[in-house]
Design a protein that fits this description.
heterodimer, A: 241 residues, alpha/beta, 8-stranded mixed sheet, 3-stranded antiparallel sheet, 6 helices, 20% helix, B: 218 residues, 10-stranded mixed sheet, 4 helices
Chain lengths: 241, 218
């Protein structure tokens, strides 16, 4: 039988990590990031990594700890504005950066995982994003060709998983995780709760276990919040976003 | 007198119709949700994977798994649904969002927008802005009329790297409201903030515009 459950993040990545590899890391900001797997990568000391991830964490959490540790060569992201170290390294020429529109990034990963070599989108037409890329007219509108993305390894975070690797995400911690689960040649998932196969409602599974090679349970999630915004209990009316 | 940020948001809220699905950007656009009249059924989308955004949580009830695209803690409501980033942008790119309201550094007289980077000075990234301006059915920009230096932000052509070309439908500043007759122009001035004069707006605007003031709103 197939055995996907590993003891911890470190053992799940043993023998997998190599200098110069391309890794997809799930999460939006610090929400839904595989924090234990990131720590295991830090402790491994592997370097010259290319990360495909919407953001790069903050200075001392998330992918930011790999940046601070000098392990990152290149980022493929959509927004890196929360990280001062990132800005300094980039402006000093010590870090490569490929910025993608967020929807284009999400779709490139989805396409990569689905065996789609490329797709045309209106996003970015007429901007630096489209420079050097083929364009084509459809119904009188100009679209630009974007390519699918895959990676050597995907590290993702889910809420619940079973021993077959079936995953369920929670609220907005889903974000990039489901697509990245399809686009890595090896996919390692960390979950808050591991249940026996059959315990998850099959109709509610977001990522079928086929995509997941290894699964680990995190023992304590920090789940840091970037911007805590609350409202007063009294006199509270409508909120905002 | 120029409009405050809240008044600009309230002016933008008037463009929202009952039943609309709306994406609000970071900054002044965030205030639009608070300015909606009672009784309107409007859903706000957050491109990190949520439709139906509730109010900020009470203190002590923050959920780290529940944030908006500005990375702020929020809550869900009865109509809320969650989905992946790919689905969120299929909604946006596929023309399913009625309206995108976002901030900007520059807008041109042909409806080009530049709001994601200042070369050599600010490195942030475009996030979802390029997808939103390319995909939303209607795009409204909320921004100060001039920079802190006094330099105009409504220009003949944007000088900063573009977010999209010929995509803006309306611009609401602290001084006035402009709309594009159609995508790509021409630009028309349709409203002045109270006690703001046409001469002042002309002096602070580089973009060419027609004057089509609808009513004496002052």
């Amino acid at each position: 039988m197939r055995e996907k459950v590993w003891a911890d993040a470190k053992s799940a990545l043993d023998g997998v990590l190599k200098d110069g590899m391309v890794i997809m890391a799930g999460g939006f900001g610090l929400c839904g990031i595989p924090e234990h797997l990131i720590t295991a990568i830090k402790n491994s000391g592997v370097k010259d990594l290319t990360f495909i991830s919407n953001n790069c964490g903050v200075d001392d959490f998330g992918l930011g700890i790999l940046l601070a540790n000098g392990q990152v060569k290149k980022m493929i992201s959509s927004y890196v504005g929360e990280n001062k170290l990132f800005e300094r390294l980039y402006l000093d020429g010590k870090l490569e950066l490929e910025l993608n529109p967020q929807g284009t990034l999400a779709e490139r990963i989805r396409a990569g995982g689905a065996g789609i070599g490329g797709f045309y989108t209106k996003t970015g037409v007429g901007t630096v994003v489209a420079e050097g890329k083929p364009t084509r007219e459809f119904d009188g509108h100009t679209y630009v060709l974007e390519t699918g993305l895959t990676a050597d390894l995907s590290i993702i975070k889910a809420w619940k998983g079973d021993r077959e690797g079936n995953l369920i995400y929670r609220k907005t911690a889903r974000n990039f995780n489901p697509m990245m689960a399809t686009a890595g040649r090896l996919v390692v998932a960390e979950v808050e709760e591991l249940v026996d196969t059959g315990a998850l409602d099959a109709d509610h599974i977001h990522t079928p276990g086929l995509y997941v090679d290894r699964i680990v349970v995190g023992d304590h999630f920090e789940k840091r919040i970037e911007k805590v915004i609350t409202r007063p209990r009294e006199g509270a009316t409508e909120g905002a976003r | 007198m120029a409009w405050t940020r809240e008044q600009m948001a309230a002016r933008a809220a008037r463009q929202i119709e009952d039943g609309f699905y709306v994406n609000l950007g970071i900054g002044i656009p965030t205030l639009v949700a608070n300015a909606l009249p009672e009784g309107m059924n409007v859903s706000f989308q957050s491109e990190n994977g949520m439709l139906g955004i509730g109010p900020f949580p009470y203190e002590g009830e923050e959920d780290p798994d529940l944030i908006n695209a500005g990375k702020q803690t929020i809550t869900e409501i009865d109509s809320t649904s969650y989905f992946s980033s790919a689905d969120a942008f299929a909604m946006i790119r596929g023309g399913h969002m009625d309206l995108s309201i976002l901030g900007s550094m520059q807008v041109s007289e042909t409806g080009d927008i530049a709001n994601w980077t200042v070369p050599g000075k600010m490195l942030k990234g475009m996030g979802g802005a390029m997808d939103l301006v390319a995909g939303a059915r209607k795009v409204i920009v909320l921004m100060e009329h001039v920079e802190r230096s006094g330099a105009p932000k409504l220009l003949k052509a944007c000088t900063l790297p573009l977010t999209g070309t010929k995509v803006v439908d309306m611009v609401i500043t602290d001084l006035a409201v402009f709309e594009f007759e159609k995508r790509g122009g021409p630009l028309r001035l349709i409203e002045l903030a109270p006690d703001v004069t046409l001469d002042e707006v002309k002096a602070k605007t580089e973009a060419a515009f027609e004057v089509a003031l609808e009513t004496a709103d002052a």
